[in-house]
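Hey, sorry to bother you again with one of my protein questions. I've been puzzling over a protein and I'd love to understand its fold better. Take your time with it, there's no hurry, and the full record follows here:
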Amino acid sequence: MLKFGLVCFLLIFLTSYCIGQIRQDARWCTINDSEFKKCQDLIAAINERKRRNQPYPPGQPTYDQLPLLKCVQGVDFFDCMTQIAGNTADLIDLEPGMAYTAGEYYTLMPLMAEKYTSGTGTDGLQFYSVAAVLKANTDINYNNLQGKKSCHTGVGTAAGWVYPVSQLITDGKMPIVQCNVPVKSAAGYFGNMCAPNALTKYYNPFGNNPVTVCKNCAGTDLSVFCTSNDPFANYEGAFNCMAFGEGTGNNFKQGDVAFIRHDTIFDMLNGSVKMTPNDIELLCLDGTRASPSDYKTCNWGVINSHIVMTSAFRSPDIRQSYKNLIYLLSYDFGDAGMFKDVMELFSSTKYGDHNLMFTDTTYQLVDVGSRDSYYSWVGEEHRQRLIALNTCPLQQVRWCVLDMFEMQKCEDMIMAFSAKNLKPDLNCVMGDNVRDCMTKIEMGDADLISLDAADTYVAGKDYNLVPIAVEDYSGTDRHSFFAVAVARKTDAHLTIFNLKQRRTCHGAVMSATGWVIPVEKLIETIQIVVKSCDVYYYVGQYFSKSCVPGMLDSIYNSKNSNPINLCEACATMGYERCLRNNHELYYGSTGAFRCLVENGGDVAFVRHTTARENLDGRNTAFWSRNRRSFDYQLLCNDGTRADVDSWETCNMGEVPSNAIVTANFKTAQEREIFWTLLNYAQQFFASDDNPDFHMFSSYVDYRDLIFQDATVRLSSLDSSKQDYLAYLGESFIRSMERMSTIDCITLGNVPVASAASSHIADATVITILMLGILLRMA
């Protein structure tokens, strides 16, 4: 009996669950009070239709078998897209431009389409983009729109923005002001504009769009001014902006031209006593003008109709139930519906507005069929228009990478940037080493690379490269970090003053953190005494063995005499051992710290962020698992030790952040294009929460690929700082110059003395230094 009762309970539960799944709500997202009221009235109309108990279309489910319509209030289209993507709303009707945005960035898909005629097939599933002017305004034509006041349905919309702006750019009439920012190009071309949403975060991420893009808008409340709820927004608003204007005296606002859809003119002037369609003319692309009825031959492009969209993550059964509901609403309350006396679905007159929930010129709603993706619905023409909209004077930017791991990330970066339609296109160039990349950029075979401070010095001094942007590791525009020495806590006897014959881990030879700062510190404290140009020989004599990636590269080992013990602590085997790139496992600050963790060395010279990045579970790589910050300490300049978070008071020196450099011959416009690409990219990909691509993180087992993983954001350098001397500052420049005094191999031009003959060169070097002192005293 108990088993039978349990089975019955499960059957009842499962039945209720399944019914609940079918009967779930269909939450329609509205963007203003009028639309919300119409949605509520539609719910009441459904209930009245049910009360009348009239037959349903053959083979179609009833309202009781379909999702229950509910109304959700959104702030604007973008808020509704966000709500649907976040499963707090389900449905919205969008014009094609917004539909493309909804599909690409919010993963929405089309269900049903507005059809504007009673014809069969694809008849009535399109409309035309037109430019409308007052007939009395005879001076305006396609060829002289520059400086005219313009009225747009909204930035990103097809008829009011994408098609007209892309057309003007393609025809060379609208100059490109800034890549990836067509709003600025339009603002530079037109006079005062009303381009709703031009100042919203989506189209104005840096808050620097010109105010003229909204100067012609009519909203008096800041919450609606220049948004999709502005009186001059959408088709009807853009038409009123041009045809009638609004305001009084000096506050009267009226545009010269409105970019709208062709049927807006007839819809807006139907029954009007102020104006008729005969008072309006269209601007044709050949420079002529035509009557509104000639829209098929005088237009700016053909656009597919508005579509009802939902999240692509809804199950096929749920999506089908939404389609059935929308079909029934159209069947009952559409132009030919039996219950039009209860509710006119495709009319907004009752609410004193236009195009609420659906376009008022809609005849019926039809299934999109196989064209059930945003891309297939809006079509290739729309995509080509978007490409034209983002036209950039520079075709590509070439990033120089140092190894296959950076190349892999760079290729992923290409795909990510392309998915967001960022221009110019990114390309990747493989360099043999960092100096080869510098050469490629100097010769014009590559454009950009991110370099540490020491390499930035070399790039500027020897290759005429300049920094244009820098990595920010704090998010506070502090473009520097601290070099620190890290040791195991158990080696309590170890201090900064007793490193002789210890094992050491360095990020790379001639890198700021891994070489210049620590070696200079040991020379300053007279622990290492360099008696000739060959600093490598004396460092090799001081330490027992080390991992200094790049130490045996021909660039730094031109005489083939560098001490082999400076590579003996490295981890990679074979010909890749001790290379100055990610093929060496102990390369870079994270690699040097790994060297310490895996007992390859007694002390690691790294960035102040490195320990924290790889301890206490922050790095999932096998070598850093179960490693605690409690087990490591910093070596301070006074011989004491401190915990790894005390880097502000316990460090070897402050170092300028890594810089993104380019060739000095690049023009100001090209440098601005480089920065705009990076700046827009980081708006999408700076966060590690982005599932598509992480700009400032790397793959497991490899760190700091292309950018440092500690980077929070990139910051641009103004023109006065776009010089390696101005950026690096006097203190670091002095460190590099001191290093060049003792390192004649890679930073100077003095003939190299071999280690075997160093004692012969000592007297010569001392004599030169003494002569210099005497000359300065004189």
The two ends are 114 Å apart (CA to CA). The longest helix spans residues 2-22.
